[in-house]
Write a structure and sequence with these properties.
The chain is built from 15 helices and 20 strands. By secondary structure, it is an alpha/beta fold. The radius of gyration is 22 Å and the shape is globular. Bound molecules: 5'-deoxyadenosine and iron/sulfur cluster.
């Protein structure tokens, strides 16, 4: 099976999850897909001998990056490396980076700067992976001479070979080719979450949104053959995972390259039919490729979670066109109508950029109006950040930082009120909750509904990974509070 080498079994891993995975209270200020916060560190593991070389990997950004780190960790375990939880204890230190916004990209250089002098002569191997690696390439060696590996995500299948070359004495090694029609084979992925498993189904992106670095950092779109995905999903369920999340920058653009020729919904349905799977999620959907078929599948398969993340980015047609988003406000609202008219209640979240080049007060007003029309359950909002080599990089960044900040606050306050109203409407309802973590001081368990609402309820540490029915007793803008409603 694909985790044979390194898989932590769900039951064993629950304790380490409780120490590290923290469901934040204020989820609307947490950065989501493509963010830039350090979100995962591979915990220490005793799977190899004490004499084995050690690695430390820190991940910034989106779920795709988190999952990429799991793939890299798998390759390192296969080489006999052992994971440690501090960079001080590691022979190999890796930063898996995000460059979606400037601040995110800067974080890795501040990390590297912190131990520049100490580590230059230490014999440790330091590597920069991911989007900053792909975008900055060999310039990283000039800016941070202590780095000896620079590798973008399209080259992770070669990571083992690249590290071998450094170990043999090459001082500087790169993996920067985007010229790949292949996806990473995931036989040795080392998953870091005890009951939720990510599966990449499509890598790269062929859309060309004017503000976005992803097509440059992750390369062209390539879908994995459906048989590989289904095989991986079955093995994960057999290994005890109850929730699977299918990943892709534009997950719903999936097109099976094998003769089976499944489209995204076809694949979704086949994964949903795997016996033993309890929750199936997918992210991120692109509005232009969003079809009513997806809503029909959510209606037909209770396993498919009733939550869709559908980034709109802006509510003004003028700005959407400048962003090259390939849909209009009206097209988008039609998709929302389709979701809202479903016989199953489906929650919707989105991403919004404020202050994109040329965004006027009137354009921004249209975004605020869109929030009222759609009534999202969650909005991830960002100030526009100019990124090198994007087509918007040559446009005038006309909205001042101060004005971007002002618009962001207005938007977030409006959305806070919408969420509070929607969440208060949930008081008294019962939801199935998958318990994710536990706060001992509060004796409180935290979990998620299938519709992705965070729920806090009196609980026990041992409940992580278990499903309970919880009745909602009170609600804030970002989370619900409840009590178990089923017999203990
Ligand atoms: N500036 C600000 N936000 C951005 N995003 C992508 N590129 C930029 C940028 N240059 C946001 C989009 C995307 C999310 C992952 O990050 O909203 O959906
Ligand atoms: Fe970036 Fe647009 Fe592709 Fe999303 S669809 S990854 S925003 S280029």
């Amino acid at each position: 099976m694909d985790q044979a080498l390194v898989q932590i079994q769900p039951a064993q891993a629950a304790a380490s999850l409780i120490q590290t995975a923290n469901v934040p209270e204020n989820l609307s200020t947490r950065e989501p897909s493509g963010a830039g916060n350090p979100v995962a560190k591979h915990p220490a593991s005793g799977e190899a001998s004490a004499a084995a070389k050690t690695f430390y990997i820190e991940t910034f950004g989106c779920q795709m990056n988190v999952h990429d780190s799991e793939k890299v960790a798998g390759a390192l375990f296969a080489k006999g490396y052992r994971a440690v939880s501090t960079h001080e204890a590691a022979d190999l230190i890796l930063y898996n980076t995000c460059s979606i916004r400037e601040k995110a990209a800067q974080k890795v250089f501040s990390r590297l700067g912190a131990f520049k002098k100490r580590y230059r002569e230490s014999g440790k191997i330091i590597g920069v992976l991911g989007c900053v690696a792909q975008q900055e390439g060999e310039r990283i060696f000039e800016r941070a001479p202590q780095v000896s590996l620079v590798c973008g995500s399209a080259s992770y299948s070669r990571i083992s070979e690249l590290i071998d070359r450094i170990e043999r004495g090459e001082p500087r090694v790169t993996g920067l080719s985007l010229d790949t029609d292949q996806c990473f084979e995931t036989e040795i992925t080392r998953r870091d979450h005890p009951f939720r498993a990510y599966i990449t189904i499509i890598e790269g992106c062929d859309k060309a949104c004017a503000y976005c670095v992803v097509p440059m950092t992750r390369g062209p779109e390539r879908s994995r053959p459906s048989a590989n995905i289904l095989d991986e999903a079955r093995k994960l369920v057999d290994a005890g995972y109850t929730e699977i999340q299918l990943l892709g920058q534009t997950v719903n653009s999936y097109q099976d390259p094998s003769p089976t020729r499944l489209n995204f919904t076809g694949l979704l349905v086949q994964v949903a039919e795997i016996p033993g799977l309890r929750r199936l999620r997918f992210t991120t959907s692109h509005p232009s490729d969003f079809s009513p078929e997806i809503v029909r599948a959510i209606e037909a398969y209770p396993v498919l979670c009733n939550h869709i993340h559908l980034p709109v980015q802006c509510g003004s047609n003028r700005v959407l066109a400048r962003m090259r988003r390939t849909y209009t406000r009206e097209d988008y609202l039609q998709k929302i109508d389709c979701i809202r008219s479903s016989e199953r209640e489906i929650s919707v979240s989105t991403d919004i950029i404020v202050g994109f080049c040329g965004e006027t007060a009137e354009d921004f007003e249209q975004t605020l109006q869109l929030l009222d029309l759609v009534e999202y359950d969650q909005v991830f909002s960002f100030k526009y950040s100019v990124r090198p080599k994007t087509s918007a990089g040559s446009m005038e960044d006309s909205v001042s930082e101060e004005e971007k900040g002002r618009r962001l606050l207005i938007l977030q306050e409006k959305q806070r009120q919408i969420q509070l109203r929607r969440n208060q409407g949930r008081i008294g309802q019962r939801y199935e909750v998958l318990t994710e973590s536990f706060q001992p001081k509060l004796h409180q368990a935290t979990g998620r509904t299938a519709s992705n609402q965070v729920v806090n309820f009196p609980g026990e540490a041992a409940w992580a990974g278990s499903y309970f029915t919880v009745r909602v007793t009170s609600a804030g803008p970002n989370s619900l509070v409840g009590m178990r409603a089923d017999p203990v």
